[in-house]
Write a structure and sequence with these properties.
21% helix, 37% strand, transcription, two-stranded antiparallel ribbon
């Protein structure tokens, strides 16, 4: 099993969720996050005062998938999240040794 973690633009959340559900993903975890990458935030003017926003709002998306469908999931994420601009996000994949459904005690892909 693999854990696919993506940091994406908040405005892309619904599109990505819909695309993943259309592909067949049955579960995911979505969390609010903040951070920065190469873009290093931006400067805004509020009531005449200029200030720098260092941490930008992002969304963290986590999906537990079978190894055989991991590449397809990545393709869906990349094609849906891409705007071609800085700040589109990052995706990383980690190996998962074990998954256990707490309610039933099921293990492995049966727990997903």
């Amino acid at each position: 099993m693999k854990l696919v973690t993506a940091i994406i633009r908040p405005e892309k959340t619904d599109l990505i969720r819909d695309a993943l559900e259309t592909y067949g993903v049955q579960g995911m975890t979505i969390s609010q996050a903040s951070g920065y990458g190469r873009q290093r935030g931006h400067t805004q003017v509020y009531r005449g005062a200029e200030y720098t926003v260092d941490l930008l709002p992002k969304v963290r998306l986590e999906i537990l998938v079978e190894e055989s469908s991991c590449d397809d999931i990545l393709d869906v994420l990349i094609s849906t999240a891409n705007t071609g601009s800085a700040g589109d996000g990052k995706i990383w994949v980690t190996h998962v040794e074990e998954v256990i459904r707490v309610r039933t005690g099921e293990r492995g892909m049966a727990a997903v």
